[in-house]
Structure formats: structure tokens, C-alpha cells
Known about the structure:
single chain, alpha/beta, Rossmann fold, 2 domains, 14 strands, binds nicotinamide-adenine-dinucleotide
Amino acid sequence: MGDSKFTKTIACIGAGYVGGPTMAMIALKCPQYKVVVVDINAERIDAWNSEKLPIYEPGLYETVAQARGRNLFFSTDVEQAIFESEIIFVSVNTPTKTFGQGAGKAADLQYWEKTARNIVKIAKTDKIIVEKSTLPVRTAQAMDRILNANDNGVHFEVLSNPEFLAEGTAIADLEKPDRVLVGSQTTELGLKARDELVQVYANWVDKERILTTNVWSAELSKLVANAFLAQRISSINSISALCEKTEADVTEVSRAIGMDTRIGSRFLNSSVGFGGSCFKKDILNLVYIADSYGLHEVARYWEGVVNMNEYQKCRFVDNMIKVMFNTVADKRIALFGFAFKADTGDTRESPSIDVARQLIEEHAGVVITDPQAIENAKTDLADCLGSVEFARDPYEAAKGAHAIAIMTEWDEYRKLDYEKIISQMERPAFLFDGRNILDHKKLFELGFNVFPLGQPSLKHYE
Ligand SMILES: NC(=O)c1ccc[n+]([C@@H]2O[C@H](COP(=O)([O-])OP(=O)(O)OC[C@H]3O[C@@H](n4cnc5c(N)ncnc54)[C@H](O)[C@@H]3O)[C@@H](O)[C@H]2O)c1
């Protein structure tokens, strides 16, 4: 099977934010394997084969460049990849369903199921099918039934191997993961497939960090990990609102509680809200699953995490309007950052989208700047391009602005010359720090009226 110079052929269906980087890392670390990444989106595949990759991640280009053409291949030939590989990762998208039963909450599994049916149609030899996409608990059972309902004697073993990489640090996370999780059936074939996948990762990951569980635990753990991470953000954001009423400072509260080793200090920065393609989708999926098992209290508990996030975004805009004398109509407002977090160009579910839209509705003149996400921002706001400007240069964006809102924690925003910036702004000049990354006292001294999150504001007027 496959090219004889390789000991194994691995395919990945879905060349997105997960499929591309994960397979690039496997190819880099395992030159003895042939790794083929396929997608139905030809434009995306062309980009993976070019100098300008379809996604931005620090270190990604270097990783791809080392392995591409050697043992890493990007192609649109899904059939050939299925045919020639022993292990098939499936990393297609699993968005929230927008129609029918479970609309707005349940995961839309149509891409996964179509892929499974395609695999059955083409495969002539036994294969290990790896769930890389985030899927509802017990999906592997449905997949097993679809895959193994064939009469050509081919056996498929379904494993769950959820991906825990974080965008912005994907390459570092893949190179040195906190853990790799492999869930399998406990049958003889299940354990054999599990060991084969463990062997792939063992090429560069310490054995102690490769965790094996039953397949349902692996599926559920991914949803739970994202729910816990998002819950921490919503928890500290809820406290930021309380801090603003009580003159407590959320950064001091975070430090004080984070020094408790039981709590830990990471993921305790308040912000304008979490974004990204996964947190909201995965929590809503968890909510849907809990409800479908009749566990309504469990569902409502987790739903609160999403509700708090929506509240934080609205609160941010409400506060902007209130302090800018109850109107932002015809005022130029520069949004610094559109990506949902720093070091990525990804804008999926970015809080900037909601904030921009609410400001546009208030007839503000919104101008968006971002080092990596302008193209995606244009797509996100395609229906209101007449009401929004884009400027790659933050100094340009801020020229003539009444206010700046820091939306993404890009390091470069910490280093800007705010004296130059304020000299070209309207007065009074407002700065809303939606990430609490700037030196507020210094900005105040330069003349800004500064509104951090969960900290006392610094104003030049009463
Ligand atoms: N983005 C993240 O940080 C992240 C992290 C962990 C897990 N995940 C999960 O991984 C999965 C993929 O996420 P992503 O961000 O990479 O999505 P993505 O939308 O960037 O990529 C998915 C790709 O699958 C392709 N695709 C869809 N159907 C196909 C088919 N039938 N045949 C071939 N290709 C097909 C699409 O064209 C697309 O390029 C999701 O389940 C997500 O929840 C994402």
C-alpha cells in the first residue's frame, strides 16, 4: 500500500486550521510516513501549495516548507488519499446546525457523515478512521455503523483523537502538547488501532503525555476542555462588571486568586469576550447533549457561560456609547484588532464582529485595523462595507478618530507611539481597552480618557 519508500501512508480529510498544521507536524516529525492532506476546497489546497499559506500561525510556514514535497502533500484528490492510506484523520468542519432540529445548538455532522460514506465507497482495505474534528459524545458509534455497514469485507476502526491546539500557538502546541488523547473501543481491534496511532505520536511526544481512554471519554473530554476554558473567561468577565461598580481592580483580583495553586493564574484576563470557532459552538453542543439526555440543570449551567459572553460584548458597547455622551453617531471609532485573539488571522466568532456591527447600527464611522485579519474582516462585514473603513496602519486608522477600542491583544499595540496617535485624534479622545494590555496611567497623562475593563476609568472631566 502507498509508496514503497514510506512505511505508512496517512491521509487527512479537511485542510483547515486543524488539518493543515497537525499534519504538517506529523510529516515533519515522521519522515518515514507519507502524509497527504486533502480538501474539496481547491483554492485552499492551492494556497497550502504556495508561498502564502491559507492561514497565519507563527512557525507554520517553516514547518510546512521543511516537509512539503518530501513526505507532505496537499491535494484535492480525496479518493486517491482514501484509497492509499492506512490511517485517515477526518478534520472537516463541524459547525453549529443552522436548520431543523437542534438549530443554533447541535453540531452539524453532515460533512463528517458525507466523508464517512465516501470512505466506505472507496476503501478496498481495512483502515483506521480518526475523529480529529470535535464531535458530540457517541458520534463514533454512529460512524462505526455507517462505516461498517458494507459488504466488501473491509473493516474500519474508529478512534477519537481530539485536537487541543490553540490558534496563535498551534505549532508550539503541536510540537510539545500538554497531552495527546486517544480514545478507542476496548475490543482487540480497537486496542490494536489505538496502539498504532499512539506509535505515530510517540515519534516525538513523551509516552507519559499520550493518554488513552475509552472512545466516549475522549469525545466528551474535548467538549469539556473547551467548556472549562471558556467558563474561566466568562467567570472573570462577570467579575470585571462587578469591579467597575465597586472600585475593585479586576487585574488585582485575578492576581490574588491566581496565586492560589488550586485556581492557577492562566486564563484569568478579563476581555471584551471570548471568540474563535470553537468555544461557543462546543458549549452549545454540550448544552444540547445535556438537554437531550434530560439533564436540564446541567444544560442551563453551561449555557450561562455563553450568555455571560454575550453580555460582556454588549456591556462593552453600551459603555462606549454612554461615556461618549450617549451618542456615537458620526463619530469615528478605530477598532484596534479584528482577529479573535493575537497571532492569528482567524476572525470566526470574534467579539470584534459584534462590536463593529453594534457601532455601525449606532451610525458610528467604524475603521478597522489588524495586522493579519483585514481580509477576513471584509468578508465578515460584507453586508455593511459601505459603513466601515479598513486601514492596515493603526496610525492611519486612528487619524481623526474620537475613540480607539483595543479589541485584540496584538503585541504591536503595546508598542505604538500613543503621543503621536492622540495628536491626530479629535478631543476629548477616548480609549477603551478591551484587553487591558496598555499602560493606562501613561495614556491618561498623554490626554486620553481611558476606560479599561474592570478597573477604575481615568477621565479628564467629571
Ligand atoms: N480551529 C481550532 O482551533 C480547532 C481546535 C481544535 C479542534 N477543532 C475542531 O476541528 C474541526 C475542524 O476545524 P477547523 O478550524 O480546521 O475547520 P476549517 O473550516 O478551517 O477546516 C475544515 C475543512 O474541511 C473541508 N471539508 C469539509 N467537508 C469536506 C469533505 N467532504 N471532503 C474534504 N474536505 C472537506 C473544508 O473545505 C475545510 O477546508 C472542527 O470540528 C473543530 O471544532 C478546531
